[in-house]
């Protein structure tokens, strides 16, 4: 039997599962395993289905088979531990889970499973509570941790605390059936929980998409009434909270801010740059910088009136700091749900040195002209890749045009694909306020794609520090790049270090801060 037949059986199993036809889904997966006993996905899915349909003992062998062929499959290992626990094999289950959490402390499902196993052992409930408390503290929206904590409170007859846990779940996940059932069991109503509406407004820029678009989508998924706009009209005064990006950049946004405050609404302002310091060669100079003097003048009034200023770096917070002005720093985040972040780069024989126009002020890259052109003279295995700003190619006039590549700015969702064309990211910058107050977003994004970087120092880059090399002296660019180009292993080590660092900055991990901010002003 051929591969397409296996694929058709897998699709049939999926179709049956979507219709809750578990028996036929299991039968189709068993047929796959008769043809290919080591098929990892079939073993994992079958093991999971057997667990969910009340056959944990039978599930164990399939989950072990999956792990045998894919040892790094953490989800399968967590499922195996749960199946073992359901058959009272607590010691082996705990050993598996502590191994996962030891290698990957960010694996919340493993911590939740471990706490559940500890709860099942009467003398270890206090250990479970410590784990659950830490999970809830880092993410107050985690339904699994909140639910288990509620059950612990119920077990010690602390009904009020249990009710708070279940209500907290429904505030963030209104359709969560376990919490609804738990409240009904305690005689509590499950309706009437309302979340505040939030309106995000800003210009259609990459910064707005990143800073406001990601939390807007995540909050919407948690049940918040959310709207996102790049314009304004009178009907928008209805939301409870407004979040503005660059409200000084356009008279329409400024009027929207003033009207929202006049209507008694809460207004947050997000700023990603120190706009008063933008120079004439910065792409946002005329819209948001001193090229728009009325806007810059209005900015101070806006910041004095805002309920909260949100910045992307601590240095930027310090630059905007003023007595009595509420400021919170929300570092850049990313969305692992965009599959392009995970798509492997295209195979290529040459090494691409890359520059990204939106990450530079014109003039920043001049420090690279001599070192990069020297490297290209010495090494035929190099290409220069420029994203977003074609004029950057003109700076490197000593490099043959056939060795230069350009990709224009695209959609926000496509950016990970564009970034994948770079093998070593170059981020030059001087002592200007713009570079020194910038966020670590370029290093975060390079880390996600395992791209080593070489950059001029600034506070946020020093704090991040993983995945690349900071250049303290302009003369060090040449030797540093020579070593990195020649050292494939070094590039790999740096890329992996950056990737590990990036895993702590997903939008899902940070959305609890947005929720806390919203609750704090209502």
Q: Can you put this structure into words, describing what you see?
A:
With 522 residues, the chain is of the alpha/beta class. The protein is 53% helix and 10% strand. It is built from 25 helices and 12 strands. It has a 6-stranded parallel sheet, sandwiched between helices. Strands 9-8-7-10-11-12 form a 6-stranded parallel sheet, with helices on both faces. α12 links the parallel β1 and β2. α8 packs antiparallel against α9 (143-155) and α17 runs parallel beside α23 (476-486). The longest helix is centred in the first third of the chain and has 16 residues, at 3-18. The model has no long low-confidence stretch (mean pLDDT 90).
SSE layout and pairing:
Elements: H1 3-18, H2 22-35, H3 40-52, H4 56-69, H5 74-86, H6 90-103, H7 108-119, H8 125-138, H9 143-155, H10 159-172, H11 177-185, E1 198-201, H12 206-221, E2 226-229, E3 241-245, H13 251-262, E4 266-271, H14 285-288, H15 293-305, E5 308-311, H16 314-320, E6 327-329, E7 351-356, H17 369-378, E8 382-387, H18 391-395, E9 404-407, H19 415-419, E10 424-427, H20 433-436, H21 441-448, E11 453-455, H22 459-464, E12 468-470, H23 476-486, H24 488-502, H25 507-520
Parallel strand pairs: 1-2, 1-3, 3-4, 4-5, 5-6, 7-8, 7-10, 8-9, 10-11, 11-12
Helix pairs in contact: 1-2, 2-3, 3-4, 3-5, 4-5, 5-6, 5-7, 6-7, 7-8, 7-9, 8-9, 9-10, 10-11, 12-25, 13-15, 17-23, 21-24
């Amino acid at each position: 039997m051929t591969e397409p037949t296996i694929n058709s059986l897998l699709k049939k199993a999926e179709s049956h599962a979507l219709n809750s036809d578990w028996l036929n889904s299991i039968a189709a997966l068993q047929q796959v395993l008769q043809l290919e006993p080591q098929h990892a996905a079939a073993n994992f899915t079958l093991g999971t289905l057997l667990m969910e349909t009340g056959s944990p003992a039978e599930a164990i062998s399939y989950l072990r088979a999956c792990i045998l062929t894919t040892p790094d499959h953490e989800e399968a290992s967590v499922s195996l531990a749960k199946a073992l626990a359901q058959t009272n094999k607590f010691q082996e289950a705990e050993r598996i889970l502590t191994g996962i959490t030891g290698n990957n402390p960010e694996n919340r499902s493993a911590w939740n499973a471990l706490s559940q196993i500890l709860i099942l052992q009467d003398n270890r409930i206090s250990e479970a509570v410590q784990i659950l408390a830490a999970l809830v503290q880092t993410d107050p929206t985690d339904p699994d941790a909140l639910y288990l904590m509620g059950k612990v409170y119920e077990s010690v007859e602390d009904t009020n605390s249990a009710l708070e846990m279940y209500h907290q779940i429904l505030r963030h996940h209104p359709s969560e059936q376990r919490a609804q059932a738990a409240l009904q069991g305690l005689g509590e109503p499950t309706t009437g929980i309302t979340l505040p509406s939030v309106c995000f407004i800003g210009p259609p820029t990459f910064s707005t998409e990143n800073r406001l678009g990601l939390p807007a989508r995540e909050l919407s998924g948690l049940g918040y009434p959310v709207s996102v706009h790049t314009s304004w009209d009178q009907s928008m005064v209805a939301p409870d909270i407004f979040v503005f990006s660059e409200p000084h950049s356009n008279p329409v946004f400024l009027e929207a801010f003033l009207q929202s405050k006049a209507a008694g609404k809460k207004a947050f302002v997000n700023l990603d740059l120190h706009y008063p310091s933008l120079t004439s060669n910065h792409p946002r100079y005329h819209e948001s910088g001193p090229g728009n003097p009325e806007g810059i003048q209005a900015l101070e009034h806006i910041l004095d009136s805002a309920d909260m200023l949100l910045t992307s770096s601590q240095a930027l917070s310090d630059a905007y700091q003023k007595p009595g002005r509420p400021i919170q720093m929300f570092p850049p985040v990313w969305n692992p749900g965009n599959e392009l972040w995970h798509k492997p780069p295209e195979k290529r024989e040459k090494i691409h040195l890359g520059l990204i126009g939106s990450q530079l002020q014109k003039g920043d890259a001049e420090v690279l002209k001599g070192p990069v052109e020297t490297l290209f003279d010495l090494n035929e295995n190099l290409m220069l890749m420029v994203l977003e700003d074609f004029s950057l190619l003109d700076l490197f006039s000593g490099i043959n045009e056939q060795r230069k590549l350009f990709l224009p700015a695209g959609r926000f969702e496509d950016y990970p694909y564009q970034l994948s064309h770079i093998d070593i990211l170059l981020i030059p910058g001087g002592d200007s306020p713009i570079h020194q107050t910038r966020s670590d977003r370029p290093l975060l994004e390079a880390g996600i794609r395992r791209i080593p970087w070489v950059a001029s120092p600034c506070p946020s880059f020093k704090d991040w520090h993983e995945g690349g090399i900071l250049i303290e002296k302009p003369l060090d660019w040449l030797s540093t790049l020579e070593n990195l180009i020649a050292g494939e292993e070094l590039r790999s080590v740096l890329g992996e270090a950056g990737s590990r660092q990036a895993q702590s900055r997903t939008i899902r991990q940070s959305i609890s801060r947005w929720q806390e901010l919203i609750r704090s002003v209502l």
